[in-house]
Amino acid sequence: MDGNGRWAQQRGLPHIRGHEVGAESVRAITRECARLGVEELTLYAFSTENWRRSAEEVAALMDLLRRYLVEERGEIMENDIRFRAIGELDRLPTLVRKELEATRALSEGNRGMILRLALSYGSRRELLRAAQAVARLAVEQGIEAALALEEEELRRFLYDPEMLDPDLLIRTAGELRLSNFLLWQLSYSELYSTAVLWPDFREEELARAFAAYARRERRFGGRPRGG
């Protein structure tokens, strides 16, 4: 969800204001995806690299996250959304972890779209964690057990083994890189980039992204139709 800071800077506003308006985009896009029947929506909310920002900005972002987790519970329940999170969640402040768990538990019985926040998330860290789990498997069950693993079985060592591979990755603010996001899961995902900054990314822009996706032909390494 790129462009919050640039959006605020263009308007002579504090960076945190861009994140606050960006949270409004989160609400709008989540609601629209749930309405359209999207199965899963994963939002890259805070990366492992974001911890390098100033202590003041990190504190403001954590407070905004805490407030979001509380204030959006009505929306989550009204739209039958199941809430989850992935990442190094133990690095989050205690109060944030408390509200994170409360929101997850509250929505556990819902049956609609999964809304997943990537928090203190980095895909290289996730893959390192998976590699360490495979090493433990080799120690506990023998090297043959580790060597016998099939490609798809690595999924069980990821943060959320039940997560579906994304069909579409949307990058706002003109970004064209993966930025350490879901490197294993995005192997065959379609990529869509827009110059629109995240605080301005609403239902109309989402419709454009979905329309562009609908025109793609997904071959997964196979030949194109008629080719």
Give a verbal description of the structure.
This protein is an alpha/beta fold and 227 residues long. Helices cover 45% and strands 13% of the residues. The strands form two sheets. Strands 1-3-2 form a three-stranded parallel sheet, sandwiched between helices. It is globular and about 60 Å long. The mean pLDDT is 95.
Q: How are the SSEs placed, and which strands pair?
A:
Elements: H1 4-10, H2 15-36, E1 40-47, H3 55-71, H4 73-78, E2 82-86, H5 94-107, E3 114-121, H6 123-141, H7 143-147, E4 168-171, E5 190-193, H8 203-214
Parallel strand pairs: 1-3, 2-3, 4-5
Helix pairs in contact: 1-2, 2-3, 3-5
Short account of what is shown:
With 227 residues, the chain is α/β, with parallel strands linked by helices. Helices cover 45% and strands 13% of the residues. A 3-stranded parallel beta sheet has the order 1-3-2, with helices on both faces.
